[in-house]
Design a protein that fits this description.
Helix content is 38%, strand content 16%. With 215 residues, the protein is α/β, with parallel strands linked by helices.
Length: 215
């Protein structure tokens, strides 16, 4: 009987290293085949930043620029996030940024046309969960900033609604650890907003809540 391809199991668990910090996790994640998303993506985009960060920011998935460069939040949304963090009193250089899903999921209207972001499924987010759990265990942040609905669902379950809890401090058990979280919108949602200035001010306001929540 033919054995199933590893992505058919929809879990990254077998690809995690037995020991080591973020560098070991990053090397191992580069070879992850825990779900089918690795097939079309250019590369794995693992988390980056301060390994001892007090704040971890969790987004949805890498975008087009992140997929090409192999780093999270390096596109337009990342630049806007850095500006909002600094304005809220949080130094971007002191944070750790990552995504719930480590491969870019996209669709194309036509061959060779622009790659259009496509939201990951709950199954794909669950498959990638072991990487996020490992990052949390190593970094041990004092606070998690949840960027958008998909990241919220990955961390807090499918009933999460960012509009209901944004800008509040939540306390939940995440991957076996008691965590404090502040949800807000994803910076890409600010870029898409009809009133971009109002959306940006809302993001900064939520991040100010996060800044005040740090001991």
């Amino acid at each position: 009987m033919a054995t199933k391809a590893p992505e058919a199991a929809y879990t990254a668990e077998p690809f995690l290293p037995e020991r080591g910090g973020l560098p070991a996790l990053r090397r191992a994640a580069a070879d992850c085949r825990g779900c089918p998303l690795h097939r079309d993506a250019t590369q794995t985009v693992f988390g980056a930043g301060n390994a001892h960060a007090r704040v971890m920011l969790v987004g949805e998935q890498p975008g087009d620029q992140e997929d090409r460069q192999g780093k999270p939040f390096v596109g337009p949304a990342g630049k806007l996030l850095d500006r909002a963090l600094a304005e809220a009193g949080l130094d971007p250089a002191d944070a750790y940024v990552t995504n719930a899903v480590k491969h870019f999921k996209f669709t194309r209207a036509e061959p060779r046309k622009r790659r259009i972001h496509k939201a990951p499924s709950l199954r794909e987010m669950t498959a990638c969960g072991p990487w996020l759990a490992a990052e949390l265990a190593v970094v041990e942040p004092e606070l998690i900033v949840v960027l958008g609905a998909t990241a919220g669902k990955a961390l807090l379950g499918s009933s999460f609604r960012v509009t209901q809890v944004r800008g509040t401090v939540l306390e939940e058990e995440i991957h076996g650890r008691r965590e404090r979280l502040v949800p807000t919108v994803h910076p890409s949602a600010v870029l898409r907003a009809d009133d971009r200035e109002a959306a940006y001010r809302g993001l900064v306001s939520d991040l100010e809540v996060a800044a005040r929540a740090l001991p």
